[in-house]
Amino acid sequence: MPHLTTPAPAAAATGSGRVGLGIPGYAHPLLAPVEWAELTRPGTPLHWAVLNVTDGPGSRPDPHCTEAVGRLRGAGGTVLGHLAMRGGERTFGELVSDAHRFADWYRVDGFYLDGAPADRSGLAEVRRVADTLRGLGEDVRIVLGHGTHPHEGYADIADQLVTFAGAWTDYRWSQVAEWTADHPPERFCHLVHGVPRTHLEEALRIARWQGAGTIWFTDRRGAPNGDPWASMPAYWDEIVSRIGPGVSE
């Protein structure tokens, strides 16, 4: 059994809340056309998908990405532009410039701040960035990709926090920060690679117990120079049927 500290609120622990998928960044639509197309299928329990053209929006509009985003948004999906914070190394100006290009070229619904700082010292700057991004449109969604449990003050800044991003071998023994019990499951996301099909149900139980309303589990592995998030898991239909209303044929 995974070692946990404080369980999630009752709704998540009992499974009465609906878990959905957060896609942290498929490969370019030319390289992953099936992956992007699958997200538009009726019944897919998608909460959001991240668009990462070239470590951000790229240097010019990409027609293939424009088409993929248009189809997904037309199907009711939420698309987030990928902003690389790199632990706070990127400047405010660089991040806002990237955000403007995402908004102008792809009409994204919000932003995924990958590598967001997690300690208390980063709160003010992350808040400054998030507040500026919200000014780019109505109902702009902000997801902070910490990858670990951050200082609880970040919960006041974003719509959702990624409190785990990593390998299954670490996730199955992970612990949940006690302060997360004060927030509903929709405020948290877990991204886990290397999850075997035989452990998929166990991974879902951990997510519900720890209070994560959005998840992405894949059997792809984070090998050196490899991106485990670039393609869908081999058990795509199974995970959709387990947490969604069913797979459309």
In short:
This protein is an alpha/beta fold and 249 residues long.
Explain how this protein is built.
An 8-stranded parallel beta barrel has the order 1-2-3-4-5-6-7-8, surrounded by 5 helices. It has helices spanning 10-13, 33-38, 63-74, 92-106, 123-134, 168-171, 200-210, 236-243; strands at residues 20-23, 46-51, 79-84, 110-114, 141-145, 160-167, 188-193, 214-218. The chain is globular, with a radius of gyration of 17 Å. Helix 4 (92-106) runs parallel beside helix 5 (123-134). It has a domain at 1-64 and 79-110 and 118-124 and 202-216 and 226-241. The chain contains 8 helices and 8 strands. It has 249 residues and is α/β, with parallel strands linked by helices. The protein starts with 9 loop residues before the first helix and ends in a 6-residue tail after the last helix.
| Radius of gyration based on Cα positions | 17 Å
Q: Tell me the major beta sheet.
A: 8 strands, parallel, barrel
Uncertain runs are 1-16
Indicate the overall shape: globular
Determine the structural class based on helices, strands and strand pairing: alpha/beta
| SS elements, strand count | 8
Specify the number of helices: 8
Mean pLDDT: 91
Give the terminus-to-terminus CA distance: 36 Å
- Beta percentage is 15-25%
How are strands sequenced across the largest beta sheet?
1-2-3-4-5-6-7-8
In percent, how helical is the residue content? 25-40%
H/E element string? Answer: HEHEHEHEHEEHEHEH
